[in-house]
Automatic annotation (TrEMBL):
Residues 417-442 are annotated as: Disordered. It comes from the Bacteria. This is Mu-like prophage I protein. Residues 419-442 have a biased composition (Basic and acidic residues).
Length: 442
């Protein structure tokens, strides 16, 4: 085709511009990230508390803290990290506060499609005393979420994750955030912590009950579970073989808070200690355990006049003594009580007589108030329409007899003389000759 038109001018050609196809990104809402309990971590065993989860939520709300990234696996010394394939948003707590939940956003469509099969597990990375870009310090912050394969890294899934990343042409980039990471750890070659938890709820003690695992220990292997119906804690031993998990007999236990000095806190004593002669059968039938907080123990020892380091035996002895003193006062003869009252300048009166007297006094006061208000109405000090309100104010003490006496009449009542001087000393004589006008007549 001739590039010039018939007038000899160069023709304009259209250049075809091909816009790159926008990547398809997806969001997976409401993903559980970590639960309260004991978990293996890269730095050792990590005891996750509800306070840690709450701190992570507060940190995520800081505008100076980057949103946690989503990665394919944790750091491997053979290569410098895995690429970020999204981020975690809307970090929040579950309704019971025992689980950290977030929305996985910005995930490539190919990754979202294969996650249920290729990456069934998740693990978090976080740091304590984390300082953000503004200088604010956070008790605990979530920095990343790693998507894990079927097996934990100890058996070698990172290599398979690398292969999957290469398969989908995902290049390695990004820096690893300092801190620690946690993940499901294998108990043996074929069983992970998640397998144990699933077995507990599907085939173990948690099946058809309201029990749920609070803590899981690996050495010795046992679970601490709570009965959600009554709050009782149980220790349940477990045995893991190549192809099965066997649960032992649950044993009722209780929490005991120990100070950093390893000294047993006073809050750990129970009222069972004061019942030495209770039968074993009764002890099994009755749920008599009682746990007190440190503040409650301090308040109790202060009220009993004991030292701050008083033990359970001293507290029980003081309470028993106080109970005996109270009982002896209740059994004190009436004559002794009357004599003590007279010594203090008081007199005793029967309760029924007191109530009857108070009732009669109230009735007398009502009649007196009615008389005073009616007299004020007749004297023109109050309008008849104000009678009810005046009586109400008299009952409440807002209007007194002195106030009514000080009032001036608002209207002239029938029978009262108007325009006459009632002073007899100034009354004039009826004799015209006594008139000043007659006397001055000329």
């Amino acid at each position: 085709m001739d590039p010039r038109d018939r007038n000899g001018r160069r023709r304009r050609t259209m250049t075809e511009i091909i816009a790159p196809e926008r990547p398809q990104l997806r969001t997976i809402p409401g993903v559980e990230l970590i639960k309260v309990g004991q978990w293996p971590a890269s730095t050792g065993t990590w005891d996750v508390t509800a306070e840690d989860l709450a701190a992570a939520v507060r940190a995520a709300q800081s505008p100076s803290l980057s949103r946690p990234v989503i990665k394919l696996g944790h750091t491997d010394p053979r290569f410098d990290g895995e690429p970020a394939v999204g981020w975690v948003d809307a970090i929040r707590l579950s309704d019971d506060g025992s689980t950290l939940v977030g929305d996985l956003k910005g995930l490539p469509a190919w990754l979202a499609d294969i996650m249920p099969s290729a990456y069934p597990n998740r693990s978090i990375e976080g740091a304590y005393n984390y300082t953000d870009q503004s200088g604010a310090r956070h008790d605990f912050a979530l920095t990343a979420v790693a998507l894990l394969g079927v097996s934990p890294p100890a058996i070698g899934p990172l290599e398979s994750l690398r292969d999957v990343a290469a398969l989908y042409e995902v290049t390695a980039s990004g820096n690893q955030q300092e801190g620690f990471w946690i993940m499901p750890k294998t108990i043996n070659a074929s069983t992970s912590v998640e397998d144990v938890r699933m077995n507990f709820y599907e085939q173990g003690p948690g099946k058809d009950t309201y029990w749920w695992i609070e803590e899981l220990f690996l050495d010795p292997p046992e679970a601490i579970a709570m009965d959600d119906e009554n709050g009782q804690l149980y220790r349940i031993p477990l045995t893991i073989s190549e192809d099965s998990i066997t649960w032992g007999e649950p044993q009722a236990v209780k929490r005991e808070y120990v100070a950093a000095s390893k000294k047993v806190a006073a809050a750990s004593w129970t009222k069972n200690e004061s019942r030495k002669n209770i039968k074993a059968a009764e002890a099994e039938e009755e749920d008599t355990d009682m746990e007190l907080t440190t503040e409650q123990v301090t308040a109790l020892t202060t009220a009993l006049g004991l030292a701050a380091d008083a033990d359970a035996a001293a507290i029980v002895t003081a309470v028993e003594k106080l109970s005996k003193d109270t009982t002896s006062q209740d059994d004190e003869p009436a004559a002794t009580i009357a004599a003590r009252a007279e010594h203090l300048g008081m007199k005793l009166i029967d309760a029924a007589a007191w109530e009857s007297t108070q009732k009669r006094l109230g009735e007398m006061a009502t009649r007196e108030n009615t008389r005073l208000v009616d007299d004020a109405v007749r004297a023109g000090k109050l309008m008849p329409a104000s009678r009810s309100r005046a009586l109400e104010q008299m009952e409440r003490g807002l209007l007194t007899a002195t106030d009514l006496d000080a009032m001036k009449p608002l209207v002239t009542m029938a029978g009262a003389e108007v325009g006459h001087n009632h002073n007899p000393d100034t009354r004039t004589s009826d004799d015209v000759r006594e008139s000043e006008i007659y006397k001055n007549w000329k």
